[in-house]
Write a structure and sequence with these properties.
Elements lengths: L9 H9 L5 H14 L12 H4 L1 E2 L1 H5 L2 H4 L4 H8 L7 E2 H10 L6 H12 L9 H11 L6 H15 L9 H9 L3 H5 L5
Helix pairs in contact: 6-8, 8-11, 9-10
């Protein structure tokens, strides 16, 4: 009978499971993935405050296969890091992966997609935000005129109150008519 080293306490695992869409096994697998990003920094056991205190640099996450090809990888990391730097602690990482999981509800995905597209962080999607998102989505293949057409069409269709911006509710209405949105807003861990 050997001593089994626990990565998390029973209480921590219950809390992590209650706050995500993951099973215990998936949480432990994601901890291994997180630890593999920087094994010298991330401890095998996170029984104290390590899950919030140990932060892995965003450059390590950018090399992950799940994010390498994602055009919004920088924004994803900034939005999910509690300090806005893109460096993530394990809880930030776990929550991001949970929101991006297939088990997360559409409303939660929409909330974070809105935050990711809100480049100026002003709580609304203005013409500049929409243009930047369109440019990223098309890998900068659109001309300035084509981007202007996209912005105009998005605002014509979605800006219900005609204030020149999309609110969170207006954004959710726009993507509710796009069933492929759910499929595009996830990663497989």
């Amino acid at each position: 009978m050997g001593n089994k080293v626990s990565t998390f306490s029973e209480e921590q695992l219950e809390d992590l499971q209650d706050s995500t869409f993951f099973t215990r096994k998936e949480i432990l697998m994601l901890h291994k993935k997180f630890r593999d990003l920087d094994p010298q920094l991330v401890p095998k056991t996170m029984l104290n405050d390590e899950a919030r205190g140990v932060r892995v640099a965003k450059e390590k996450f950018l090399k992950m296969s799940e994010f390498r090809e994602n055009p919004f990888k920088e924004r994803l990391l900034r939005v999910f890091s509690d300090d806005g730097t893109g460096d993530l602690c394990f809880e930030d990482f776990l929550y991001m992966m949970s929101v991006l999981s297939e088990g997360a509800p559409r409303e939660l995905k929409a909330k974070f997609a809105f935050a990711i597209y809100d480049y100026d962080d002003d709580g609304k999607l203005g013409p500049e935000d929409i243009a930047m998102a369109a440019a990223v989505l098309t890998q900068n293949q659109l001309t300035a005129e084509e981007l202007e057409v996209v912005v105009t069409k998005v605002l014509d269709e979605g800006d219900i109150d005609s204030d020149g911006h999309l609110s969170q509710a207006e954004f959710e209405h726009v993507i509710s008519r796009a069933p492929e949105f759910i499929n595009a807003f996830h990663v497989r861990a």
